Amino acid sequence: MSQLENKIASTLAILEAAVRDYAPVTFANSLGAEDMVLTDLIAESGLNITMFSLDTGRLPQQTYELMQEVRKHYTLPLHVYYPEAAHVENFVTEHGVNGFYDSVENRKACCYVRKVEPLRRALATKHAWITGMRREQAVTRGTLEVSAFDVDNGLQKFNPLLDWTSAEVWEYIKANDVPYNALHDQFYPSIGCAPCTRAVTPGEDIRAGRWWWEDADSKECGLHVGKSSALKFAAIN
After folding, report:
1. Residue 169 annotated in ligand binding
2. Helix (H, G, I), strand (E, B) or coil at 210
3. What is the pLDDT of residues 102-120, one digit of tens each?
4. Are 35 and 133 in contact (CB under 8 A)?
5. How many CB atoms lie within 10 A of CB 218?
6. Which residues contact 107 (CB under 8 A, 6 or more apart)?
7. What are the two backbone dihedrals, phi and then psi, of residue 38, each rounded to the nearest 5 degrees?
8. Residue of 221, 222, 223, 229 marked catalytic
9. What one-character-per-residue DSSP string does 58-79 give?
10. Coil, strand, or helix at residue 208?
11. 161 pLDDT band (50/70/90 cuts)?
12. In the predicted model, what is the mean pLDDT of residues 55-75?
């Protein structure tokens, strides 16, 4: 077996173990390249794993186009969760529509409203969730484990692509004709909300285009680390 074939077999084994030991299981699909690999693997395997995505209300048009393509390409339904309108209104009233640029605290509060709170609704009835995070992606992800208890959300969390390289992700996508976000072809290796994402230049870190005005060690939205954003959210509501 090739190295990629070994990685695929290992990933499928992790997904199978998650379903066997922690059903019901759901997959949080960010529609990035890694998550499109997982979309394809889960759909093709027929494993009993549901799939959802978070529409923050400020995603790039290319992400919405991919979201629609996923619906057409796969039989596995993609459930979409949205932020609570009142929470968005409160944030904008307090900080302005682009107030997340003003401070890390404001940015994390915006992420909480648009991502973390909807995520918790999506996970509320599940026993485990799947993500496409990889150690190679950022300094904040170097200590991740393949499987660990998610204290913040109260369920088991699996990162089955943890040790995949970016080259392996793209090898799988190309070999299997997996749909992907058109922004990846415009030097966007990591894609989030439109106002918080930019293209990177050759040699830059793959997440340099995310919240580029912040230090690298603060570049998380709260979906995968800590509760600081939740505390900030509580203070503005």
Report:
1. no
2. strand
3. 999 999 999 999 999 999 9
4. no
5. 12
6. 100, 101, 196, 211, 214
7. -65, -40
8. 221
9. ---HHHHHHHHHHHHH-SS-EE
10. coil
11. very high
12. 98
Residues forming beta bridges with residue 80, ordered by sequence position: 53
* 235 among annotated binding-site residues: no
- Distance (Å, whole) CA 207 – CA 209: 5
Single pTM value for the model: 0.88
Q: Which two tokens stand for residue 48?
A: 């009993």
184 annotated as ligand-binding: no
Decide if 32 is catalytic: no
- CATH-assigned architecture of domain 3-235: 3-Layer(aba) Sandwich (3.40)
Q: Is 134 annotated as a binding residue?
A: no
What's the pLDDT band for 207 if we cut at 50, 70, 90? confident
Residue type for position 234: A
Which ranges of 32-162 does DSSP label H, i.e. alpha helix?
33-45, 61-73, 85-95, 104-111, 117-123
